[in-house]
Structures
1.
Amino acid sequence: MTELALNGIFRSFGPRGAEARALDGVDVTLSAGETVALVGESGSGKTTLARIAIGLDRPDRGSVLLDGRPLADRRGRIAHADRARVQMVFQDPLASFNPHRSVAASVALPLRLHGGLSRAARRDRVLDLLAAVGLDADLGARAPAALSGGQLQRAAIARALATDPALLICDEPVASLDVSVRAQVLNLLARLRRDRGLGILFVSHDLGVVQRIADRTLVLFHGRVVEEGVGPGLWRVARHPYTRALAAAVPDPAVPWRDRPRALPAAVAAGAEAAGPFAIPSGCRYRLRCPHAVPVCAETDPTLEPVGAPGQRVACLRAGDPALAPPQP
Ligand code: SF4
């Protein structure tokens, strides 16, 4: 089974001595047939990690292995066959299409690059791909700007499927879509995973979105995974104060207010010092925003430890405290 493993990934940007640490020792694995969600706010490092996973960026330290072998060689080149096995879907579908090509021509482009098909076979394959994502064949003849956002994101997914990949890296694929269209695209990704055995790394700032399709969820804060959970219910059992703040923003009308995790107190949120990747504080990197911080949080950098539900791991010195226990059903 295909597996992509990112081990101990470090990545910084900016001039020496004033670097911004985007990723600070992140481990992620993605196997065919599972959906791993990577959640965090802007600047958490999630898009950098997605780009590294597909070989569009290189880590300063750490390894990216596809089935145990380096994805890229020392000069960053990726073997043709491996590039076909891991494909990416971008946030802005319009920006990812050539405006001067028809949608069908763009979907066919990976088939031309990877070769092996006649023109007629490519045309048939494009029609199959458009059908697989629920698009009518006649939409393929149109320019990208003539399609709606949802239709174009479907076309982008069709293009990513052209090389029959085992893994898809999806960077905020529904962030620019209306709520109703968003649900359709999420359902499409869930179906593709089920029918084709795809592994999907789903990057999002919205915990509510990823909870619909995630088998595992990793919560990233300032370049570090601060909580990991299994299954779709992490937001219900979250113990890290940052995950709880994300979970409090999930608008699920089926859950009574008293059962939802508490958001940050307004005074803490408003007065929080935005440390950002340029100024990660000593000890716990979340402590400048954390309403549960105690003095030891300034001295000790917490690591991910098992606590709570099966498969749950939390990087918080107080994760086992009753104050951070999820509400009882
Ligand atoms: S270690 Fe301390 S500061 Fe960090 S999240 Fe836990 S309680 Fe808050």
2.
Amino acid sequence: MGTAIPVMVFRGNWEVGSESPACLKLLTWLRMAGIDYEAVPLRGPPRSQTGKAPYIVRPDGTLLDDSSVIITTLTQERSIELDSHRSDRERALMTTIQRTVESHLYFALVLERWRDNFEDTYRGYFRGHLPEPMPWILGTSLRRQILRQAKAQGLGRRPAEQVEAEVIEDLDALASILGDGSFFFGTPGVTDAIVFGTLENARKAPIDGAIQRHLAAKSVWATYLDRMHDLYWR
Ligand SMILES: N[C@@H](CCC(=O)N[C@@H](CS)C(=O)NCC(=O)O)C(=O)O
């Protein structure tokens, strides 16, 4: 239906559809929903209202941001049924999983990338796309902004061992909910896009961080993330 939706995303050099968890979540969900899109790599700061990516360009030229808002909007406009049959209890769990991943685990990933491994992160996100010193200016300014957010959220002020312990708790809790299922709630849905967006990013980045190590330690994650990758990104 219609033409491809332009989706503005961070797209750099790593082996993932986007280095940004929120962008990879949205792109994965669009693939799941069978919606045609064109991923447009950002070459400067996001122009969305929140200053964040991803965002889409609407047919009237306006910009719509926040991956969840975009997903809810497109779900309504295009009558997407991926999650329409979930029970109240499943919906409650979906919200809880989303908050765990996007409001907690995400910040642990941010600290691994932007505080502890900035050189690799900078190379992954920016290097080679624009003439120097633009990438460096963008990279260091994004770093300042993102680390300020991690401090405000709280995780950025905590000792590394405590953050790592909580990462393990998050991953173990998610693995328990997933159990031996192929998807979080039996059939693919937004929760799978959310979890994949963050965990596939942690797994594929050339950064030796706690999230990557703990993902590698439990075979359930390789099985799940490989399945998601094969279904939507091969
Ligand atoms: N709630 C937003 C979060 C988006 C988000 O945090 N995007 C990050 C990349 S993963 C970003 O644009 N960061 C740039 C910044 O914070 O300045 C969504 O789901 O779209």
3.
Amino acid sequence: MQTIAVDLGLSSYPIHIGTGWDGILISECARININKALIVADTNTGPLYGRMVQDLIASGDIAARLVSVPAGEGAKNLDTVAGLYAAALESGLDRESAFIALGGGVTGDLTGFAASTYMRGVKFIQMPTTLLAQVDSSVGGKTGVDFAGMKNIVGTFYQPASVIINTDTLKTLPERQVLSGLAEIIKYGIIADESFLKFLEANINSIVALDSQALVHAIGRSCSIKAEIVSKDERDQGIRAVLNFGHTVGHAIEALGGMSAYTHGEAVAIGMVAEANIALLLGLIDSSLADRIRDLLRRAGLPVRLPDFSNESLVRLMQHDKKTTGSRFVFALPKGPGQACIYKDVKPEIISVALDMARQA
Ligand SMILES: NC(=O)c1ccc[n+]([C@@H]2O[C@H](COP(=O)([O-])OP(=O)(O)OC[C@H]3O[C@@H](n4cnc5c(N)ncnc54)[C@H](O)[C@@H]3O)[C@@H](O)[C@H]2O)c1
Ligand SMILES: [Zn+2]
């Protein structure tokens, strides 16, 4: 078991990473001092893990109700949140009670939003069960739902009281979803920590094979990198933007794939290759780092070649990206192994050449 402290003053909390949930879940419920719990799972994680978690919490003499929301992004809306408020009221949850998210990023985001608004905020515990949720969405305190066709357009900043990660849950996760989270892990090595990048290069096969020791280290380091960046910029107004490496091109690929052809991590993997080319063309990095990035992603089993979307359609979508102002393109780019910067004035011609290069990857 590894524990990482997220340092946010009064809102500080621990992230526990290990195999199994048994002891740690009971001791965290006691430490946080909750009287009742609403466990929110989805229709995949509920049948797999709901009963186990409910029984564990009940063994600490805490009444716990389990509800399952439909699996998938389609359920990340205000109607689902309203259902959670109704279940919480029915079960008599008050400000000493906890909402517990047991699932991926969708479950975590909508349960966190419900927890932050029910009775103006109740206790919140994250039990993320996808690799993406374990290394990304459960850390940083962003909650939210989709509204009027826009992703995450309604939400809050709300820190959990505890994050409890059981790497055993990844054994039931479809491999494509595992790889989607792995793209974010590789991103952390590239932007923030060369020794972690080297660890990933040496251990990528063990991680893909879900070796617990390698996973606990990779998830722990990823959480501490994200936590460190977030603690410098809790409200996402500056340095936190380096976390967007690979995402400006990645979001455009996701959109052109109709939000279904590529997982988020697959799109970000290709996006990192394309954006590393931008860094190369700007003289921020040399070709050996661009090659290292592409090779590691490829060895992980992630796609690295840009599909046949036109440069025009990709650039048009990037213009709508929230990081772009006017005709200047803002990118989070590597500037050396384990180092990143925000580059505020990338010309469209450079982007086009970088995209052409990524089609040859
Ligand atoms: N809050 C943040 O900072 C933040 C950051 C990144 C992403 N997100 C959000 O996260 C969401 C994506 O998260 P995700 O990729 O985890 O998607 P998800 O929650 O939809 O989970 C993916 C699929 O895996 C299933 N699943 C989950 N755990 C499982 C397990 N252990 N075994 C078998 N199946 C399992 C789910 O039911 C679902 O079908 C998006 O809505 C995105 O906006 C939020
Ligand atoms: Zn991402």
4.
Amino acid sequence: MNNLTVTTSSASYPVVVQAGALASLPAHLDALGLRGVLWLICDGAVEARYAVPLAAHLRAAGSTVHTYRVPPGDASKNPAQLGELHTWMIAGGIERRDAVLALGGGVVGDLAGFAAATILRGVAVVQMPTTLLSMVDAAVGGKTGINHPLGKNLIGAFHQPRLVLADTDTLASLPPRALREGWAEVIKHGVIRDAGLFGELEQLAEARGWSESAPGGLWDPADAALTTVLSDLIRRAVAVKVAVVSIDEFERGERITLNYGHTVGHAVEQLSRYGLLHGEAVAVGMHAEARIAQHMGICDGDLVGRQAALLHAYGLEITLPAYDVDAILALAMRDKKVQAKKIRWVLPTSVGAVQVRDDVPEELLRRVLQA
Ligand SMILES: NC(=O)c1ccc[n+]([C@@H]2O[C@H](COP(=O)([O-])OP(=O)(O)OC[C@H]3O[C@@H](n4cnc5c(N)ncnc54)[C@H](O)[C@@H]3O)[C@@H](O)[C@H]2O)c1
């Protein structure tokens, strides 16, 4: 139903976003010709709830399934953990026709994806994201990898999945804060490329009167109508990522637009020593960067206000913590978007459209970040 498709020069694959989608995995694997042994990788947060029943479902459909659980958290994206996964698969007799199944948030997706990219010079991987953040971002687009002591995500490979299966029912067990941070990326996708999505998010916030109650628990499994609406919104946000990576598989152009809010956001995330979650930092970054755009004269105050109201409505803070502006700028200069010592800012021009600018005066930045 309403499936999306990523199409790049190296691959084409379906992206399914639907309540109950995990039940359809055996049929999808069959349709893709993935009939080898399945190497299911998950973390402790999803094992009992989703991995165990999924493995039983696959076995009932005739598959051989091996399961590996990694500890939850970003620290699992390390070379030793990767090595253990390799050993597990090699010792278990993995063959080229087998497939890795990544079930979990972005940590499991990145780690299992990189294990799949590197074992036997690459086996198939299916991404099954279980956090809102990984549904709308990490699981789609083929970026896989682990961290290095000198920085996050520095070791990795592009390895496109054969299928992305996002079961929105799994969001019911996500802690409210993790759900909230995911909404930041959903809203970001509206701002950069889909004014209709932005408008629908506004309408829903208004209809549900969420703004005062900071809707951490806005996923109510008992409310079928609401979960259907939310699933549709998530699918629409995923469609933005699908469109962008289909244009720019290897991050040479269009993909930079996905980094809206991330230049200030990454700096704030680091200055908070990761006390702020990624999506929370992105929300702060989006507000700061929209204000930069406003001061540059490329968007109006209406956009800044609507975006701020929407972020608030989905429970996100937008106030920049009182960090030293020099520290923010120093970290922004280390951003991956810096080219020829200039920061390339992704700035909104209107809801649904952005511009990349490398001519933001430092004095303007200081003024906005200090205010
Ligand atoms: N590859 C990419 O393009 C890309 C893009 C963005 C982020 N990332 C990476 O993604 C990672 C962040 O992803 P994340 O936010 O999903 O973090 P995560 O994988 O750490 O998940 C967040 C927490 O939620 C738990 N969890 C996951 N699903 C759950 C569920 N359904 N119910 C209950 N608990 C659940 C996890 O165990 C974890 O504790 C980072 O490592 C980041 O670098 C990658």
